[in-house]
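In full, the data:

***
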Amino acid sequence: MKNSSKTRNARLIAIIILHLIAVVLTVYSVQSFFTVGGDGNMSVAGAVAFRYFTVDSNILAAISSLVAIFCAARELQGLANPPWIRIFRLLSVTSVALTFLTVMLFLGPFVYGYPLMFVGVSLFMHLITPLIEVISFVWLESVGAERMKKRYMIIGITPMLVYGAVYLVMVVFTGKWPDFYAFNTGGMFGLTVVIMTAFTSGISFALGLSANLVAKKTAGNKL
């Protein structure tokens, strides 16, 4: 029992440390746009940075990380957390996982090249923070957690849909933004919407089901 308690506390402390790192990296990355103009494929200054889903998804993840830190601290005190926290965590982790996979499968090989995607703050936002979020959510936070019903997993696509609507208006309809994600190349934005919706849904379900598998193996219960 004593060893079990030590293992549990070590896991919760690891969650807190990982999420503190994620928050610090995100704060540093965002401020860099206002101080040095960013770098890599996001060499933009000031509020223009918020046009990028990469930046927005990392900010959402940082907010979610603060929630995860708070929840882990409560668990260290033997307190329970509300079930909706898991859904919010899935939503935010899906967003940064989408950022990571879009870079790895599309933007890196076909648009900007990998070197430009993994330099300076781009390295933090495209790789390190997404990996921290996924590892923590699936393999640390899911230990002993309540399992999530599949109908909640579709909620993970919400940030992508909201951002996609804004991108559609600003890039396709008004032309106020350049097509920096190359999603409208050849006027194919409609096809991009279908692909990204299906892809993001797959990510959300893959994360949710993986987390449920960990929860099941560690005696989690259904929501």
Remarks:
- The chain has a mean pLDDT of 94.
- Residues 2-217 form one domain.
